[in-house]
Amino acid sequence: MLGFDYDRAHSEQKRTLAEFLELYNASLPVHFPRASAALLTCYRENYPSQFKRDGLWSLDLHRKRIMDWLPEHLESLEQSIDK
Questions:
Q1: Contact partners, residue 36, CB within 8 Å, separation at least 6
Q2: What's the CA gap between 31 and 18, in Å, rounded?
Q3: Which of 20, 24, 29, 40 stands the most exposed, by the fewest C-beta atoms within 10 Å?
């Protein structure tokens, strides 16, 4: 019988945007762009189906997707946020 998987539980835990943002940026490799609350809000607006149930974030569902999405959209998102 396997013991409790703390890493999995930590990854699956539902978090607020602020909590997710802190954990996401803290565990991000140095060469990756950092997220901001404004950028994560834009992501949530572009992918509402990922937030239908509770509107919360989790590392297991969103971290990799943000890492893939952010570099491709960073410049255009920053321009629209600054306006």
A1: 21
A2: 22
A3: 29
User: How many angstroms separate the CA atoms of 64 and 72, rounded?
Assistant: 13
Query: What pLDDT is stored for residue 40 in this prediction?
Result: 94
SS (H, E, C) 13-64: CCECHHHHHHHHHHCCCCCCCCCCHHHHHHHHHHCHHHHCCCCCECHHHHHH
- Its pTM stands at 0.80
Residue 57 pairs with which residues in a beta bridge?
Answer: 15
How many angstroms separate the first and last alpha carbons of the chain? 56
Burial class (CB in 10 A: 0-12, 13-18, 19+), 74: middle
CB under 8 Å to 80, separation ≥6 — which residues?
A: 42
